[in-house]
Amino acid sequence: MHYGYFNGTILPTDQIGVGVTDLSLLRGYGLFDYFLTYNGRPFQWDWYWERFRNSAAGLRLPLPLSKDEAYAVVMDLIARTEQPNVAIRFVMTGGYSPDGMSISKPNLLILTEAIHPVPPVQYEQGIKVILDEYVREMAELKTTDYKHVIILAEQIRAANALDVLYQKGGEISELSRSNFFIVKGDKLITPNRHILRGITRRTIIELAQADFQVEERPVLLSELYDADEAFTTSSTKQVLPITQIGELTVGDGRVGSKSRFLLERFNDLVANW
User: Fold this and answer.
1) For a disulfide at 141, which of 58, 84, 171, 180, Cβ 3.0-4.6 Å?
2) What are the pLDDT digits (tens) for 16-57?
3) Which is nearest to 269 in space by CA: 39, 98, 76?
4) What's the rounded Cα separation, in Å, for the pair 202 and 222?
5) Closest listed residue to residue 239, CA positions, set 195, 181, 156
6) What pTM did the predictor assign?
7) 3-class SS string, 79-144
């Protein structure tokens, strides 16, 4: 059974309900964050809390809990699930609004969820993604607005792909729910504009410093043609190789040694978290 916190009360998640006058329902005004636990401990808690706090500030929503209070809630929820590892989802909405526009008091949910790992075959073979010309609004904030990728879902399936890589005017930004990297020789290159600054992205950049020349900069579509490897990073994907982008085969079309190396580095880190 999974549990959730809602404005000071902890209940089984299937017993939590949010009222119909909430601004997330009426106006799509809300934010979230999502992370995993390893060995019963939240991964990169300080970084995730910092991002959640920054997203709240960007939407002008006051945090109802301090960092330490939120951590205590998270640890309580983890203990109640009686599972070694779970996913944690923070959701904060604009709250109940008397006129459908004004913010009075945000609603905060902290939920435990089952982890849905990437199938091992995808790490062995890599994945295909399609291209789409789009930049997320307020990309640096983790808002609840993901309607664009939901609209594209049928197109992604029809292409036998698993996700979409966004670009605008020939400049790559990110995938729908994860960050993007390319490898060229000993260079590890990742976009730094129009993106959500992912915590797994940040972790991989730190882990790569000793073995790669890391470049955070604008990345052009044209650079895909001579990339040796490409991969995407997120909480659930970790380091997931991309072997095809649209009609373009990345490198030799096989999972590269450097993507594997970085995935091993990440797995070593979380094994002892």
Assistant:
1) 58
2) 999 999 999 999 999 999 999 999 999 999 999 999 999 999
3) 39
4) 25
5) 181
6) 0.96
7) HHHCCCCCEEEEEEECCECCCCCCCCCCEEEEEEECCCCCCHHHHHHCEEEEEEECCCCCCCCCEC
Whose tokens are 């964050």? That residue is 33
**CB of 240 within 8 A of CB of 231?**
yes
Q: CA–CA separation, 33 vs 273, rounded Å? A: 20
Buried b (16+ CB within 10 A) or exposed e, 134-159: bbbeebebbbeeeeebeebeeebeeb
Helix (H), strand (E), coil (C) string for the chain: CCEEEECCEEEEHHHCCCCCCEHHHHHCCEEEEEEEEECCEECCHHHHHHHHHHHHHHCCCCCCCCHHHHHHHHHHHHHHHCCCCCEEEEEEECCECCCCCCCCCCEEEEEEECCCCCCHHHHHHCEEEEEEECCCCCCCCCECCCHHHHHCHHHHHHCCCCEEEEEECCEEEEECCCEEEEEECCEEEECCCCCCCCHHHHHHHHHHCCCCEEEECCEEHHHHHHCCEEEEEECCCEEEEEEEECCEECCCCCCCHHHHHHHHHHHHHHHCC
Query: Which tens digit of pLDDT belongs to each residue from 144-182?
Result: 999 999 999 999 999 999 999 999 999 999 999 999 999
Q: Which of 150, 156, 160 is nearest to 131 (CA)?
A: 156
Nearest to 94 by CA among 103, 81, 85: 103
